[in-house]
Amino acid sequence: MTAHSRDEILAFGTATSEGAATTAGLDHWRSLPISQAPQWADQEDYKAAVAELSQVPPLVFAGEVDVLRTRLAEAARGEAFVLQGGDCAETFAGSTANRISARVKTILQMAAVLTYGASVPVVKMGRIAGQFAKPRSSDTETRDGVTLPSFRGEIVNGYEFTEEARRHDARRMVQAYHTSSSTLNLVRAFTQGGFADLRSVHAWNQGFLANPAYAKYEEMAAEIDRAVRFMGAAGVDFEAMRRTEFYSAHEALLLDYERALTREDSRTGNPYATSAHFLWIGERTRQVDGAHVDFLSRVRNPIGVKLGPSTKVDDVLALAEKIDPTREPGRLTFITRMGAGVIRDVLPDIVSGVKDAGLEPVWVTDPMHGNTVTAKNGYKTRRFEDVMDEVAGFFDVHRELGTHPGGMHVELTGDDVAECLGGANLVDESAFEEHYESLCDPRLNHEQSLEMAFLVTEALTH
Ligand code: PEP
Ligand code: MN
Question: Could you say which enzyme class this protein belongs to (predicted)?
Fold first, then answer.
């Protein structure tokens, strides 16, 4: 995040009356069909949580969100590459300093590989500080003849398979806010306080065992060190390297939470969702006449929409018209998650339809969600080769059509878990029993993430 003036930081402190016209429609979603909404167990708790969240300080500021929009506009034009990464589902217990720093470090390392290897500025974004709500394919889950509500992310209910844990508890929204706040505080400290200094690329690798991806990283870090020493000797001012912009993002699934954290910017009267810089609409909630699209079309944040393999070009154009009627650069990102087996067949029509309509969204690949399989021992997993094949297909399609492959969106962790199969240091199914930690979808571990960064760098430069 960049430095901001005091006025900018205080912009949400005072609401203005001029904004009334733009904020008037912010509750229209309540009258529309809504998918994936929780059924809060206690209405008094719900009212109290919403009242509290309506008063708390914003997590992000309008000025930062506006800067991100200009960065995304650069990615849409092919002048930058977006890297979004983090947990499928964050957890309250997992929001510790060590785990947060490992995740941030992983994204910084991947960004360093991409920036150095492909000479492209990287827009760094975490699925972090708010990624607590999960869409589910079924409302209920049955185990050994017992049926309970599905786990919907810790902002709604608990993972434990008991009636008490699975009840939809609105007080969890307040806990999610505070957890996001402390997470973001640490992310800001790491990325503004010198930890993200490119001169530390070597240090970021410490503590990891020697293996193929790390050896390659060490080699690159040594090259960066040499370049930095050269620049230092030539008198370059390193101040700009001490800090890096790092943005927060999550799926805007829980509209009760998003609405309560929406604030009017006193500079302009415009509404901003202040729960994160970037919000996306998931594959299951992107109905053009539905509640999620309506609400997100009314806030100023840059908005992403996930597009799965059944997407029709007309739906995409209707979404663009609703969310980005003025075609503002950087406003709209399409995150495609097609599956390695079909991306080369289904993506071209969508991209060319959008291109023919004269639109220039950011095109981001999510190579995770179309490639989920069940392992023989029952774990939900993804094969590293499938993930990389979808990334390759994404680059092929955009190359062919002359559009820009603008970024990637991945589920990853900085920890040494075993959740996805494959990679140079082969993870196999037997490792799941001991090292599978995700409460939702499988993530690339630290090493698989670095390996992916090297492979994507090659794709960007060839
Ligand atoms: C996710 O990003 O975790 C997710 C649920 O994705 P999608 O909406 O693409 O299925
Ligand atoms: Mn997921």
Answer: transferase
Instruction: Give the separation between CA 442 and CA 412, rounded to whole angstroms.
Output: 8
| HSE, side-chain direction, 13 A CA sphere, residue 314 | 0
Report pTM.
0.94
- Cα–Cα distance between 271 and 26 in angstroms, integer? 9
ipTM above 0.90, yes or no: yes
Instruction: For residue 366, give the ligand 1 atom closest to its CA.
Output: 9
Token pair for residue 433?
């029993």
Q: pLDDT per residue over 48-75, tens digit each?
A: 999 999 999 999 999 999 999 999 999 9
The atom of ligand 1 lying closest to the CA of 285 is 8
What residues flank ligand 1, with Cβ below 6 Å? 88, 135, 251, 282-284, 306, 337, 369, 441
Residue of the CA atom closest to atom 9 of ligand 1: 283
Instruction: Provide the 10 A C-beta neighbour count for residue 232.
Output: 12
Q: Whose CA is nearest to atom 10 of ligand 1?
A: 283
Residue matched to tokens 């399989």: 373
